[in-house]
Every structure is written in structure tokens, then in C-alpha cells.
Amino acid sequence: MTKKKLAVAVILFVLTWGLTPVYADEIVDSINEALEAYKEKAYVEAVESLDYAKQLIQQLRSEVIMKFLPEALPGWESKTAQTQSMGMLGGMSGVEKEYWAPGSGDQGRKRITINIMAESPVMQGMMAMFNPMYAGAQGGKLQKIKRNKAVVKYNPDNRSGEANVLVKKSYIVSIKGQSVDKKDLLDYANAVDYKGLKQF
């Protein structure tokens, strides 16, 4: 791919998802710097420039993924979504958002956390959780959420649980709840924009 084609591809990606073109400028500039450094046999500098471009692309991707997280459901509030860099997990990146609502009676405040993890070599090892035998052994139940394979665990005694949803083997959406009803957990699991995530 030529420099011009690369620049056009990055800019189109940014504009399509409504993100600032500054990202495109920085990414393309960093890649061009790596090419120039490579031609000059400044290999360390070339690697550093490529690493920086990779970090910017991962950050850009995380900001796009944020768009697929749901807004707070009626009666709930939420924090601003945060990006996460998981360099220790094979370069995995992701986003996280917290939601909360008042508890009923003497019960504590309800809390839901949704995390979307983007594809990474490490995810291959995480696929085991979607095996029916493994899920059952861990107290989970295999089911479908919006036509996606999911494992749901819920403990009525302490009113906590989690749902992990596999999206086209590229993303794992994790919904964890504390002091919640199972319905709260599933309501948020179903509120994620899986269709948009599959297209990205």
C-alpha cells in the first residue's frame, strides 16, 4: 500500500466512525516516519514509530468500541466509558463502563460493569469458557444473547453474577453485577449493540 492510499484509508476510517481526523494525521505521520527511518537503516527509530502508530490505532479502535456500550437504562446512572490498555495480555485493548441504581429496602446500591475486550492472541485461551462442560463446571449456563453464544452465572444468595458474550470470535463482552437481580444483569447484556460490534 502506497503512502497516499494508506493516508486515505485511515482518514476514511476516522470519518466513517465520527472521530477526530487528528488521529489520522498522527497515525499516518508516525508510519511515514517509520518508513523514512527504515530507509535510513535507523531500525530502532523505525520500530519506535511503528509502536507509537500501533498504540494510536488501538486507542482509536477502543474509542469506536465505546459507541456500542449501552446508555444507562431507566432508573440507572452511568459513568463515562473508559478505555483500557492490556499490554500484559498480548496487546489486548478494551473499554469499560459502570452503571448503578439505588437498592430496594435495606439492600445496597445496584452496580453493573460492562467490559468489551477486543481480539488478541490471548482470547484464544479464553474461548474455553464457552464450552458447555467447562461452563457447567464453573456454575455457568450456556445460552444465546441476541444470537451470540453466552455463558451466564448468577448467585441468588448474594445477588451477584456475570454474563460473558462471544461476538464473532473477535470480542468478549463481559457484564458483571453486584447487588442486582438476574433480570438487571440480562437487561444490560441485551442492551449492548452487538450488531454494530459485529460490523466493526
Walk me through this protein's architecture.
- The protein is built from 7 helices and 8 strands.
- The chain is of the alpha+beta class and 200 residues long.
- Strands 1, 2, 3, 4, 5, 6, 7 and 8 form an 8-stranded antiparallel beta sheet that branches.
- A hairpin with a 2-residue loop joins β5 and β6.
- α1 packs antiparallel against α2.
Write the layout of secondary structure elements.
Layout: H1 3-16, H2 22-39, H3 43-65, E1 77-78, E2 82-86, E3 92-101, E4 110-118, H4 123-126, H5 132-137, E5 141-145, E6 148-155, E7 160-167, E8 171-178, H6 182-191, H7 194-199
Antiparallel strand pairs: 1-3, 2-3, 3-4, 4-8, 5-6, 6-7, 7-8
